[in-house]
Structures are given as C-alpha cells and as structure tokens.
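Translate structure to sequence.
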C-alpha cells in the first residue's frame, strides 16, 4: 500500500475515532448518567460493553477503529488478524477498520447478524 493511501486511511480512522469517542461519551452521560469525560479509550469501550443496542455497537466500532490505528502504528495494518495474508485494498477503502481477509471472513464459524446482533453458526465443512 502506498504512503498516500495509508495516510488517507489513517486520517479517516482518526476522524471516525474522535467522532465515536464524542458520541459514546455523550450517550453514556445522557442515557446512563455515567461520567466518562476523563476515561481512556479502553475504559470507554469497557463502559459500553453489556449495555443495550446502539451504545454497545458504538463501543464495538470504537474498539475496531482503535485496533486498526494501533496496527498502523505497529506497521502491520492491512494484514489479516487470523491468517496474516494481505487484506485487499478495496476492502480497506470500503471499511478502513477491516481486520480480516475475505477468506477468513467467509470461513469464520461464527457470524454476527447485524439485524439481531446475535451470533449464528454457519454449517461446518465436512472433512
């Protein structure tokens, strides 16, 4: 991946991270009376876990975006978290926080249905 594309993706993730932190902080304060203006990102993510619906989804997205930025800092961005093969650039442009290559996403035994936020199992491949 060229340095210009990487810089664009970093800017996109950095903006999204800031927006997620602001939204999550506001929602936790207004909806749950939690005072989290001084929390770290990790603490903010933990606060969102176990809460219903949109707040939990915001925390999950923040965790994914933060992980992508950390991968950039470690110079392993764009490598699949499971098999370490390259994630196609088109996938990263579509979702800069993508952590898995298409093969690993397709073969993952557990899939999360965004409509219900429930884990479903895919049929196991026969050996």
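Result:
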């Amino acid at each position: 991946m060229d340095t210009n594309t990487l810089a664009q993706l970093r800017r996109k993730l950095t903006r999204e991270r800031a927006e997620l932190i602001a939204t999550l902080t506001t929602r936790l304060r207004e909806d749950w009376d939690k005072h989290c203006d001084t929390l770290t990102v990790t603490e903010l993510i933990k606060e969102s876990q176990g809460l219903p619906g949109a707040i939990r989804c915001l925390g999950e997205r923040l965790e994914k975006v933060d992980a992508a930025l950390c991968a950039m800092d470690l110079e392993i961005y764009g490598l699949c978290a499971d098999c370490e093969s390259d994630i196609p650039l088109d996938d990263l442009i579509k979702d800069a926080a993508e952590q898995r290559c298409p093969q690993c996403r397709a073969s993952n035994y557990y899939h999360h249905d965004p409509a219900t936020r429930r884990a479903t199992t895919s049929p196991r491949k026969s050996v």
